[in-house]
Amino acid sequence: MQLSDLFTAQMREIPPPMWGPGDSNGPSRIALAFGDADPTMLPHEDLIGAVAEVLSSDLDGALNYGPTYPGLVRVAAERLRRQGIGATEQNTLICYGSTQIIGLLPQVLIAPGDTIIVEAPTFLGAVMQFRRSGARLVGVPVDAEGMDVGALETTLAALRAEGVRPKIIYTIPTFQNPTGATMPLGRRLRLLELAIAYGVLVVEDDAYNDLRFRGDAVPPIAALDTQGWVIHLRTFSKIFAPGVRLGWACGPQALIDRLAMCKVEGGSGPLMTRVVAQFAQDGRLDAHIAELRARYSEKCDLMLAAIAREIPEATTVRPDGGFFVWLRLPPGVSATALVPVAAQHGVDVLAGPRCYADSSGDEYVRLAFSYTPETQISAGIARLGAAIHSLM
Amino acid sequence: MQLSDLFTAQMREIPPPMWGPGDSNGPSRIALAFGDADPTMLPHEDLIGAVAEVLSSDLDGALNYGPTYPGLVRVAAERLRRQGIGATEQNTLICYGSTQIIGLLPQVLIAPGDTIIVEAPTFLGAVMQFRRSGARLVGVPVDAEGMDVGALETTLAALRAEGVRPKIIYTIPTFQNPTGATMPLGRRLRLLELAIAYGVLVVEDDAYNDLRFRGDAVPPIAALDTQGWVIHLRTFSKIFAPGVRLGWACGPQALIDRLAMCKVEGGSGPLMTRVVAQFAQDGRLDAHIAELRARYSEKCDLMLAAIAREIPEATTVRPDGGFFVWLRLPPGVSATALVPVAAQHGVDVLAGPRCYADSSGDEYVRLAFSYTPETQISAGIARLGAAIHSLM
Question: Are B47 and A51 within 8 A, CB to CB?
């Protein structure tokens, strides 16, 4: 008898780990591949202060057994209500990063072979989670205004003709990862209308929502939804620090209850939930977000200016927020061929195919301006330009 | 069309939440029901110090995206190697509390109807997790030397006669929750022999391992296992603070790899894993454990003395460590009847049936000496005595 006999049928074969070597910003080259936070903006002193405050005022609550701090649920729900989302303490779930929610959603919704509609391109972490679940991923193109809702309608109709009712439409409508595009109100309304008509859950990943550089806010799709077809995902990673591993979801109660059940460890820890709530509650978080917007806006402008100067043959669309510039390479240059050449030139970028469920997009690279110091952004783009020109 | 149509078949109906109101120590009565840590022993200053040290030395590593800190994996593995377990950085997995591991194990091993052998009585959290998975739970009695391995053999043989190969034998061999019993070496060897002969995974939950008051350490079952049939669970909850939500598992690589895959959020956070490693690395953790042993030993003695004085008709077995005294009530007194009467007298205790998969054990209550201040333990036992005597 072998131990492996005891594994369930689905667990006999397992895929390789989701993240591999090189799937984070490394120190040896200029790092433009991954959307880590700006290290100079990480709230060092504020975090130590918040820990000390929490432990002084509520040591037993923070360090003993206990649930997610309800005060953080209130903070999270209140931030959503400001934007018109009907969030309550009941329908808001704190998780270990919004990645955990993206990972738990298939446990509630996906049987192998079920269909998930994703943007093309989209967030590679979500693609990996969805693929793990055995889902069939169907891409809908993104243009300068986000997901093409006309193409979405065609896709939904075609699937219906096959007898397929998709389970999820996964969208990043605001400062999309990787394109930076923001979906205007009209498209959001149409997307919601289609989702309801076809009976599909909208997973609105709004990780970058608070990081707007210019222009007016567009209502979240969840704020437009009166019938309970949208789950809205947010994260403290982009507005406080990724390392605290806290995000949240707000959605239909039946779905939130099931996600909470699949979260086998129960809450998200009494300590860090108190620490983040402490930081958020007296206006420090909003002040910090204002500083982040200014900083990331500057870095974005710096990158776009460098691209215009160093790689005039490339095409970009200026994002109104977020972490990324999506760069269309000069004709004939392949992203897959470029990435190792760029690395030889001393800069890391992400090949477009990493962002597509079907591995297309070889004419694009994703550039993150979030992580690398201002002083290195121009140098990084110059190196990338040299690498591109060496391939032309 | 309804949203609920989209849920997978298993997710249509969901059970009530695992933990309910009253499933933690409350402030209004003397709290002897739940095994929370002693609040006066929570490492307040050390924790703030460790956070400051970590953020000073490795801000980007601690607060940006990143995996579980490998330094904590090394700390965890090294603690197991000291006890003869063949732990490496590869076969040791850090989780959000050992509860998360107990929750993930069924995802790898259990299809509905599969059998899990548990001790009778055992840890109620594990029973809830296992029951959730649709497993059939079969209890094997515990006596003053832990699980009765003769009864285990009978059970395994009877199941084999039914054509059933159980998936898991779940045991807490050291300072068992709730009985406090410790399994001697001979029984551990026999349990392992039976597990191998019948091809069943041993889940050795050794949460209380480090909290020995007296007597010599007994080798963990995992240290006796040369054939890869044991997964060993530990936690920082009992030796540092429950609120950091960090535990670990060491076991057969194929099982650890699958648990890591089911842990959809990836690592257990770059920040808290660094903070706990910082505290552990320079001897502070071992010094702290020595203080905890002394404190909990005193509190245990205080409770046993109070029981002898106040409830001489009750029976207890002195534990050699851990958090609990398991009290056999005087003949004719029902734990289920007693709990509300005790609450009226101003003390909370846990009814025995909460610790049995089959809800038997109405002649027992579990008393935790870990949480309540020394000054209140005697008063709590006096109140319990009065409640018991009112029912006799």
Answer: yes
Q: What is the pLDDT of residue A16?
A: 79
Convert the pLDDT of each residue in B366-392 to its tens digit.
999 999 999 999 999 999 999 999 999
**What's the number of domains chain B is made of?**
2
Interface with B, mutate which of A41, A51, A55, A65 (most B CBs under 10 A): A65
Cα B260 to Cα A18, A146, B243, B255, B257, distances in angstroms: 10, 34, 22, 9, 5
Does B63 sit within 8 Å of A36, measured CB to CB? no
* A55 and chain B in contact, CB less than 8 A: yes
| CATH for B94 | 3.40.640.10
Q: What are phi and psi of B350, to 5 degrees?
A: -100, 125
Give the pLDDT band of residue B20 (cuts 50, 70, 90). confident
A144 CB within 8 Å of a chain B CB: no
Tell me the chain A residues in contact with residue B167 when contact means C-beta distances shorter than 8 Å: 6
- Please say which residue of A246, A281, A316 terminates a domain: A281
CB spacing of B255 vs A200 below 8 angstroms: no
User: Is residue B52 less than 8 Å (CB to CB) from chain A?
Assistant: yes
Q: Kindly state whether A260 is in contact with chain B, defined as any CB-CB distance less than 8 angstroms.
A: yes
Alpha carbon A215 to chain centroid, angstroms: 21
CATH number of the structural domain spanning residue A330? 3.90.1150.10
Q: Does A34 touch chain B (CB under 8 A)?
A: yes
Distance CA A99, CA B355 (A): 35
CB–CB of B313/B68 below 8 Å?
A: no
Q: Range of B386's domain? A: 22-42+286-391
Which among B181, B191, B192 has a CA at the least distance from the CA of B143? B181
Kindly state whether residues B188 and B337 are assigned to the same domain: no
Q: Are residues B238 and B356 in the same domain?
A: no
Cβ within 8 Å, pair A63-B201: no
pLDDT for res B23: 81
ipTM of the complex: 0.95
Of B219, B390, B66, B188, residue with least CA distance to A97: B66
pLDDT digits (tens, 9 = 90+) for A128-182: 999 989 999 999 999 999 999 999 999 999 999 999 999 999 999 999 999 999 9
Using the beta-carbon criterion (under 8 Å), do B24 and A129 form an inter-chain contact?
Answer: no
Considering only the beta carbons, identify the residue of A2, A4, A48 that sits closest to B52: A48
Q: Where are the alpha helices (DSSP H) in B82-238?
A: 98-109, 124-132, 149-161, 185-198, 221-224
What residues of B are in contact with residue A67 (Cβ under 8 Å)?
19
Give the residue from A259, A281, A303 where a domain finishes: A281
**Both B344 and B195 in a single domain?**
no
B265 within a domain of the structure (yes/no): yes
> Do A227 and A194 share a domain, yes or no?
yes
Inspect the interface and report whether the beta carbons of A65 and B265 lie closer than 8 Å. Answer: no
